[in-house]
Structure formats: C-alpha cells, structure tokens
Fold:
Amino acid sequence: MSISTNLSFKTPNFSISKPHNPSFNPCKLQQLQQFPPCSSPIRANSISCTLARDLGVKMEEKETQSSVFLRPDSFGRFGKFGGKYVPETLMHALTELESAFHLLARDEKFQKELAGILKDYVGRESPLYFAERLTEHYKNSNREGPHIYFKREDLNHTGAHKINNAVAQALLAKRLGKKRIIAETGAGQHGVATATVCARFGLECIIYMGAQDMERQSLNVFRMRLLGAEVRPVHSGTATLKDATSEAIRDWVTNVESTHYILGSVAGPHPYPMMVREFHAVIGKETRKQAMEKWGGKPDVLVACVGGGSNAMGLFHEFVDDKDVRLIGVEAAGFGIDSGKHAATLTKGEVGVLHGAMSYLLQDGDGQIIEPHSISAGLDYPGVGPEHSFLKDIGRAEYYSITDEEALEGPVDPTPSLARRRAFKRVSRLEGIIPALETSHAIAYLEKLCPTLPNGTKVVLNFSGRGDKDVQTAIKYLEV
Amino acid sequence: MAYTFQPTLVANPKRSRILEYMSCNPKRIHSHQVNQYNSKSATDHFSSRIKSCLSIAGSWRFGKYGGRYVPETVISCLNKLEDEFNLAMADSNFQAELRTALRDYVGRETPLYLAQGLTDYYKNGNGEGPEIYLKREDLNYSGSYKINNVVAQALLAKRIGSKSVVTATGTGQHGVATAAICAKLSLECTVHMGTLDMEMQFSNILQMKLLGAQVKSVEGNFKDAISEAFRDWAGKMETSYYLCGTGVSPHPIPIMVREFQSVIGKETRRQSMEKWGGKPDVLIACVGSGSNAMGLFHEFLGDEEVRLIGVEAGGLGLDTGKHSATLARGEMGVYHGTMSYLLQDDEGQITAPYSIAISLQYPGVSPELSFLKDSGRAQFYSVTDKEALEAFEGLCRLEGIIPSLETSHALAFLGKICPTLSNGTKVVVNCSECGDKDLAKVFDIHHGLTK
Structure:
C-alpha cells in the first residue's frame, strides 16, 4: 500500500531518529506524525502537504496553485510533487543553497564565469546536427517523413550532458566557501563527472559507490581516482546505487557545514530539482537559437530519455510554455513493463517520497522500493524527478518506454518489424555516431513516433551521451 | 647525392606487379633510378627557407624531403588525387560542406582553454611563469584531432566517386574516425591494424565493427598495417580510396593532411587574438608521424617570433635504442613513399620503434617536419615514457582532463621549458587526444600488470 492512501504529511519539520535513508519504507512515516486520513482511497490526489516557509529565503510571491506552470512554487513543489522531505539537520543547508542559487542567478560575474567554463572547458555550445541518413530511413513510401536532429551532448567534455550541472554546482559550492564535495554514483558516470569538476576547481572529492558496482566498474573507479577523488565503497544493503545514496546523505548530514552534495539529477529535495534543471537548461536555450538559425522556427517535437530526468528537463524546460512543442520522455522498460524488471517509473510507478522529494516511484504494495532494471545504468533508477511527474499529470509531456531489446537490437529474426528495432546499432551504422545506451532508448522511440508525424515535422532528440562506454556491454547482444 | 630504392616482389602472385616500399639507405646509393618518378627533383629550390616550407600543391618537396617514391602503377592515381584535391580546395560548395561537417558532426571549433591549474603548477617561487593554454582537440567527436583529416578526405573520396575506403590505424583512433565518417557517407570501410596494437585496443576494435567497418589484422604494428593497407588499396585503386592519416606518404598526401589539419592553427590564431589580443609565443605538440603538430604549426610558419616545439617519444631513453625519436636519432631515407628522417640501421633496415604511446611508435616522420628541423624553424625534443606518464596523471589531477599518452608527451615537456620562459609567455599545447583509450594500459601499469 502506498503512503498516499492513508496519510497526509506536514513536512519538513518532523524529526527522525536516524538520518534520512532514501530506501526507507514510505509507509513507515506513519510513526512520525499522524494526520486525519484522507477520505479518498487512492493515491496521488489525496495527499496534501505543507512546507514550512523558510525565513531565510527571499523569494518573490508566487501565484496560487491555480497557475498551471509554477515550476516550482515557493514551497519547492511542482503541483503536488517535489518538496523537501529531509531531516531537520539538512534544512539549513538546503535553505542556504537555495538562497545562493537565486543570488548567483542574478550575479553577472558568476554567470560570466560559468559561461566561460561551459565554453572553454566543457566545449559548448554543442551542435544541433541534422541526422540525414536517419531522416531518410524513416521516410515512408511517398518519401515523406519528419526531419530528425540530434542535440549533440555527447560532444561535451566527459561525453555526456551530466557535466553541465556538475560544473555549475562545483562553481556554486566554491562560492559558498565549501571545500568538500560528495556524490554518489552507480556505474560511475556521475562520479566521473563530479571527480572531473573537483579536479578542475581544486575541491576535495568523495564519491560513494556500492561495493558491487565498484567491482563491475573497476575502470571507472580507477578513472575517478586518477582525477583525484576518493572512492568509498559502501557494503550495506545490496551494495549498489541506492545504498551509496544513503551513505552520501549520511555524510552530508554529518558534514553539512563544510560539504556540498552534488546531486546528479533533477530528483532530490528542493532546491535540487530546480537547480539541476536550470543548470541543464542551456541545452534547450541553445536548441531554440540553433533551430531558428537552421530552419527559422522552433522544434515541433522534443524527445529525450528519462532516468532521473535531468537531460530531458534540460531540453524541455525552455519549451514548456510553447504549447505547440510536443515533449516526449522515453523511459527504460527493461525486460518489459509487465515483467517487473524495468525502470519505467512514470508508466508503472505510484506517488511516494524518495530521496527527499514527492514523485512517482517504483514501489510495491508495502511501500518498499522495487529494484529497477535496465541495460543502461543511467536509466536504472526507481524514481524520477518531481517536475516530470508534474508534467505527466497535467498532460504537458508524454512518457513512453522502450525495452532493452528495442534499445539495443532484437534477436536475429526474419520478422521485419523486429529486425528494425536496432537503435544502438542503427544510429552507429547510419550516422557514424555511437549513442549511449541511455540515449538509445530515445532513439528507439523514433521507430514508433516517426510514422505518425506529418512530412517535414522537426524532431529534436537529445543525444545525451556517447556510447564508447557501452560497446563492451552491447557487443554481448549484438551481431557485428 | 642520388637515391634509389630496392624493390622486392611481394610473394602473393596476384600482386606480382606491385612493389613493396623499402627504406632507402643513402650510404649505398650509386644509381639514379628513382628520380624517374620525380619530375621535380632535387634541383627544385626556393628563394628562402621559409617560403620553401610554405609548400603548395604542385610542388612535391619540402627542401630535399617529400617527393613521390612509389611504383609506376600508383602514379596516375596520385596525379588524379592531386587534381581532385586542388579542385576541391577551390570549390566553395565543398568547403561549405566540409565546414558544416566540422561544425555539426565533429563539434568544431574546439576551445582554446586556459589551464589555470597547470599554469599555477609551473609558477616559480616568485609566482611567475608562462600562461598555459590547451587547444582542446580531445573534445572532437571520436576524441581526437584525427577526425579533421578523416572527414575531409572522406568527403573528397565521395566527391571523386569512390565506393570504398581503405586505411590503417595504430591505436584505433584513426580507424574509429574513418569507420564513423564512412558510415555517415555510406562508404565501405576496411581498416588494417597491427596484431600487437590490437591486443590493447579491444574497445576501439569493437567500435569500428559496430560502425560497419571490416577490421583486418596484420602481423606486427602500425607501420606494418600501413604497408598492408597500401597493398590492399593498390589492388582496387579504381573504386577505392586510400585514406591516409599521417603525413608520411607520397605527394600530395603530406600537403593534403596538413591542409585538412590546419584548421587547428587557424582557430588558434583567431582565438588567441580574442583572448589576449596577440599571437601565441610558443606552440608545443607531440610528434609521431607529425600531423597534429603540422596542423597547429602550419598557420604560424611565417610568424618567426612564434616558437614551434615538437616532442617525440623518448621511450626508455634515447641511448637504450628503445624509442621513437625519429628526428633526434634518425637519418634521411625513403619510407612509405616519401623522403624524410627515418629510424634505420646501417644496412637501411627499419629500426623497430618503441613508445608507451602507440601512435608515436612509428619510425618515420612527416617530410615537412624534417625540413622544419633542418631549417631550424622548429625545435624537436623527446621525453621518456616515465615523464609522459607523470604528465598524464598531472593533467588528470590539475585540470580534470584525461589526455592520451601521446598528448602527455607534449605536456611532459612543459616541465623542461616552463622554467626557461619569461613571466606571462603564452604557451599553447595541442591537447591532441582524449585519454580514455589509454586508461586500461595505465591501469595495468599501476597494478603492476605491465611495465
């Protein structure tokens, strides 16, 4: 049973005896503070939460919740999603972070410094690349079809979009006078991005990584250590990402004065979803400018893969208020959404609290987190950013899912429809660009989308990462 | 002194008319056979040493280096290639297509990045030292400068009407770049790779295959792969294009490769003007065959106040014989169709080169760099494997950039040159490649699995 059937919460002023464990059973919040149960038997709509107003934060008065696109509101919520479900000890740090973020958003010197780093260190702006052969591939028998463009985030330093946010947060941390950075990582991508920026800015870097993941990703562990980071193994629980996250949060609670926690996605407690989105919003801003240059208009459809949701929000955010632009997120269906082995949170999840935010998440009847599965490590996450949950609920964005097989390559099969589902290999062979397995999910969705689009529709797909890291995984399944 | 080469027949009877390249030992020359292939021979000269190194298409040499030491059967192909190259360079449509590909596919222009961590590291006790900039060729698609030349040549191949491309690769970076652009342009692609190199480059081999290339193994290493690739191409010259990644080739290839790489130097000039309102004072690049160095240097050849420094692979030390420092220890000879410095023994046999950096492990060097050395326009030094590894780790820690082991040679030289430079000197190092491909090797070294 999910928490939302019985309880409504007043957050975040409750205190808990242990530091926040993001894999905790959401139902266990019952023991902390009880409120009159909601009359509705089900989930998301029956929750009402209030967030204590933090005096330290100067924010403009926002409109009431009748305004559809307050993102987020003054309480850090996107509709009913988001918020700050954290221990009291972290409240000050989050407040301080939010204040700093708003101040620096208006600080020309900071913005100029950040722009310079994005240009000279990260290598922005990333191109908007016309995928000519893929466009040709999706033409119908009348030679009609959409025009497909890739936003080439794979060309960034470290090979993915993640560095946009890592760089900005490291710079922010420096401005706050923090000398120490912590992060958690699963397969190592976010850890590498964090270690990279810490080296660049001369910050101490501690990365928490599940011991099991460390064994599987020894080269990435070595990479982080070469970059000067300390990689701490986490042996508790299943010794994977969610346990590493718990440990990182524990560290943060203990060292909050000196330490900044670089969260890698648009999940987590407010202000992280907003901050990470803003730091990735450069993707969408550049896309608008480049689209105008290339075809004198806006994109018609934006497509991006969704794990935590940061690359998608980075592309979508600029266009959320442009109602004529369709927003499509593609999640990982793993072995199939009915198999129970997937990471399709928005498709199959229910509303709950995970990692400090209210959002959709994969949980069982007891409110336990369901271990997700995807062939792509970056999508292998049981939650999703609260803003995506909001955009789904209000119908502004659409979310679909793609299986491992569809993302990669189907088994060798004479059936034409199956033979066509070869996103990872298809883009490599047609465009000479190897996508990350995460990105391959978005690419695979083109197979279903393109036949429905009128001739000349402009589709922009966020090419969120490069795939050389995935070749050894993919080759086990592909025939090359 | 006249030069000749001693052809040998390839054992394969199908190729009995094809002659293998051989190195040339000037100590044994008596006859004058070879110059039948070089109508513009050693009598060419230029009014000044600097003008001669601004070699233009149609002029086959850089001083006494360069030329075309190839079998007769290949001459017409090279003539055609030269004509097509000249036409393409003058064709604004081709140039526009190339610019778009470099911008949207490769991701140019690459930044000129102030490496503050390195700059601070090399400051002296008074807090003074040069300013160090990195030209970020590691940010190109495929992680290397190599793609600049590959994209341009592939577009040229398509323009000529070739259906397939043949090439050779050392570390695999050039192979991956070639496979990638061939996929994009619907060209068949065959990549030859030495068996010794294939052992450490599993990921690159997988990438090439995924991109649709056929990867053929050749006994030996990079130099052997080049020979085999040329042999392969020679059998199907009418429909196939030989995509050379190095400047060690018969004319017009050294000029073509240099021109296509010169985008590096052109951008550097403009960016340095934007950043500090002037030119660089010192340019540093690693030197294997020399194409990344020429790409950076060429734009500034006429600017005599800009120092040009190439850094070769000193391996285990120049006196050990285990190195690839061609310009430091080589002698003049003919290799892979061109006259240049070459690592050879007294009998004219190629000396096996060695370096921890595979792409620097090559016995030859670009003829243009040979000329620049002799004319004194550029200076060449070498660093050992150990120094390169230290520089590799240094850049990781100081800047959060993982360089290739090749690039690390250029970076290692900073340790020797920076103390000699005056405060505020602007140094630009060509960060030619990303080091992801070398992580496994460095990992093994750290864990004692390799020396």
User: Anything to note?
Assistant: Residues 75-103+146-257 of chain B form a domain with the Rossmann fold fold (CATH 3.40.50.1100). The longest strand of chain B covers residues 307-315. Residues 298 and 396 of chain B are 29 Å apart (CA to CA).
